[in-house]
Design a protein that fits this description.
Layout (H helix, E strand, L loop, with lengths): L1 H21 L9 H5 L7 H4 L18 E3 L2 E4 L7 E2 L4 E9 L8 E12 L7 E9 L2 E5 L4 E4 L3 E5 L5 E5 L3 E9 L11 E4 L14 E4 L9 E8 L15 E7 L1 E6 L2 E6 L3 E4 L5 E6 L4 E8 L6
Antiparallel strand pairs: 1-2, 2-18, 3-4, 4-5, 5-10, 5-11, 6-9, 6-11, 7-8, 7-10, 9-12, 13-14, 14-20, 15-18, 15-20, 16-17, 16-19
Length: about 300
Amino acid sequence: MHSFLALFLLLLLLPWRSLAAESDDGFCSLPQSIMESSSRLLYWKVTNPTLSPSHLQDLPGFTRSVYKRDHAVITPESHVFSPLPDWINTLGAYLITPAMGAHFVMYLAKMKVKSKSAVPPHDVERFLFVVQGSAVLKTDSGISHQLPVDSYAYLPANYKHSLESDETATIIIFERRYASVENLYPEPVIGSTEKQPLLETPGEVFELRKLLPASAPYDFNVHIMDFQPGEYLNVKEVHYNQHGLLLLEGQGIYRLGDSWYPVQAGDAIWMAPFVPQWYAALGKTPSRYLLYKDVNRNPL
């Protein structure tokens, strides 16, 4: 079985390698300027993706995006931005919504100069993560928090706040209607990935950080998962939890159901309950993704 998997992955990689030999900007190759420079900002490829192999970039109608009953891969060339309702100077692209079958939304917010967020609908909680630029989180208490790249904030349902920016910034946002439990009340959380400890992952090789407390008041968590080139998930997961994923760095292969997808920084994935799922990190650089997961609630 392992030899078959290795052969399968090799066959998947062959087209990428041939493209890389023909062009410096092939799907799984990095431009020479990126390989030679250490000055690229964190998550730079999320907002400056390689849209497709060079020989397909001018092909009318080409996209790697796909939507199926139990999963979706939404790639940057198919993002559609429009003004976010009630936000100021901000464009948004909804990547995951209940129209797919999800019970949460995941969207990109592109904030411009002098931009400001709206509050979520009643009883809706919000998690935001900065992938480009910087923003300021303000609360009714008068406290302000500067949020640079790799910073995040969790705002409980009906918690009054605003996100403002005097420069361009790109934010990935998750929102869902809070699944309340009597006498459980989540608190706001503000932090950054680098300050979160690495957690044990028995039987796995990837590095894991959880951005929210694992305690019962929180009905979802957000994980940061890091893979070195060649590493992959040992467990082929099938579970009731839904996922929303944004690949922040690197590239690899994601199995969803019976399909295998090449993915790279900037790609978003929705995984419905019980869809078989598996990831392998491929290419020349480490990969990292941000993963939403609903937790701490009885599926009934």
